[in-house]
TrEMBL record, chains A, B, C, D:
It holds the Pfam family TetR_N. Gene3D superfamilies: Tetracycline Repressor, domain 2 (1.10.357.10). This is TetR/AcrR family transcriptional regulator. The keyword Ribonucleoprotein does not apply. It comes from Streptomyces flavidovirens. The keyword Coiled coil does not apply. Residues 1-50 form the HTH tetR-type domain. Residues 13-32 bind DNA.
DNA sequence: CATGAATGAGGGTTCATTCAT
DNA sequence: AATGAATGAACCCTCATTCAT
């Protein structure tokens, strides 16, 4: 996962993976049928939290409270599987060709369905899109910025929650 | 650009590019020194609007009004160079190795500097990050969604403007 | 080595080498990291005698007797690795770019240091240079000439020994 | 010639030549039919002295005096066309494929015929080979050594003359 | 469970050369 | 007299994959 996240899928060769694990290329082929199989395996381990979040979300009533909880859990999932999400974000062109059942984008759209109201104003729908992406953006842009990562995560979550709250017609908590 | 955006940089071979243009591989090498040079050229054409925006922004007073204008102009630049931004989004792993990669992220950070206040609360800083990315996200997620693209763009811009307004301590326009 | 000696380094392609060995090009790359690596390997096998000669020579007293012995041994090394030396002679332009190139010329100069006296008259120094090269020249020019190669080698060695003897102030054996 | 001498024939591309002369590749093709034609032209200019020396030598009586004169003239020709000789020496593998009427080696052998006596003892024949090569070797080995080049040339010539003198049964001038 | 050896397909790149203008 | 544009052939090299052992 480290190699894939650093270099991207195509630019990571089996030779590199084998060297990093200190085994031979042929040994990899004992455990995985193809290169694609390797990354699919990694995904199955790492996307479970996200899938669980989705199924959980689908069973809940579609209240603002639920949405806030979804954002909170998503924020945590994001932090827990940071390299995976980084990989998905940065290798979407590749992901399209990989036989991973639902792509990252599809999953995102399902999640989005849970958060946004298809009958709301367009701006409010976008607020919900933005809420989800805010947490990604915060992770991406603030990666090298100073400050406690946990603190940054919480701040991003707060902004996200504000956004869906506004989408529900509530005035945001004004912070100053 | 079409090929790069569809398939990603690494998976697009010079053979494909040449075939699409109905020339030989060698002919490409008369016009571009390397494969990287091809995409760099595409970028130079397409990032000019962004550069102009930055220099313009740096000459303005750092008021809320200016920031709104920056967002408005950025929204337009984004729409004009949509395939380029899609490519960057989806090929970040590659971008890191390309000589332009760094410069794009730098550009984004400079732009961010113009929009956010380094002394503001962390949440407000993230609101500004989010404002910029909202427009990206809207473009990305709503690409295949129904509705007039121009309408969507304006809605995203509105949300972005709300976010920086809030970061300036102003209550958002409540839309419903 | 045969191909390299016949055609030169640049004009010998990996395709040719692979065909001659009846393997694929890719198979070569399993055994050698680069094309250069192939020739470097050939050299390492073939220059060992020369290295041993040098270390031996450096441990001996710098008498005329030693120098004669060095020439005798060098003559033998030359005969043993004839194709190698032919290659070096005929591909010096290439050798300069190869990572071994320098080392060969350096080796020759070290050997020269063992044979010539830096304080002697210029002509005597050149006699020593000439002594070494005589054996090369003989090999090169007389390759296709008639006569027993071993006999020619011995004659060349005799001339070389005469040259260093003269450089030591001794009258040459006059042969007729 | 500079480029060919520095890098060798194969590794010098027409692009490089064109750039060095500040013309286009196509312009070269107006003046020369092929790449080979370029180097052939250079040779015709530069080997004339050597050819003249050969025809002159063939008309002279085959005395020791003549041979000394040949060596003297050859020494001068060598110095005058140093880069050419360097090129020939270092690119023999290439020379073989070039359609330059007589190769360097052939010319050398003709010259050698003029200097050596086919009926002499083998060692004496080698002395004559060595005489010619001494001047080459001196040029090659002593290129980067300190000292006046002209002085070195004369010393090498002296050694060469000594060698043919000995081949004629004369005791060498002992220098110390 | 693992490896050494090998391969076909394709990668990006460079080259000498051509030709209409 | 010169050039911009193009090309076919070849280059070195890397890749994911296979298979007998």
């Amino acid at each position: 996962m480290e190699l894939f996240a650093e270099q991207g899928y195509e630019k990571t060769s089996l030779r590199e993976i084998a060297e990093r694990l200190d085994v031979t290329k042929a040994a990899l082929y004992y455990h995985f049928k193809t290169k694609e199989d390797i990354i699919v395996s990694l995904f199955q381990d790492l996307t479970r939290p996200m899938d669980e979040l989705i199924t959980w979300g689908q069973e809940q009533p579609r209240t603002l409270e639920t949405k806030k909880e979804i954002l909170a859990r998503y924020s945590q999932a994001l932090a827990a599987a940071a390299p995976l999400f980084r990989f998905m974000h940065e290798n979407q062109a590749t992901m399209r060709d990989l036989s991973i059942g639902e792509t990252f984008k599809e999953r995102m759209l399902v999640l989005l369905e849970l958060v946004k109201d298809p009958d709301a104003a367009l701006t409010d729908q976008i607020r919900c899109v933005s809420a989800l992406f805010t947490m990604h953006a915060a992770m991406y842009v603030l990666r090298d910025a100073e400050g406690d990562p946990e603190e940054k995560r919480e701040a991003a979550l707060e902004v996200a929650i504000d956004l869906v709250s506004q989408a529900h017609g509530q005035a945001p908590r004004v912070t100053r």
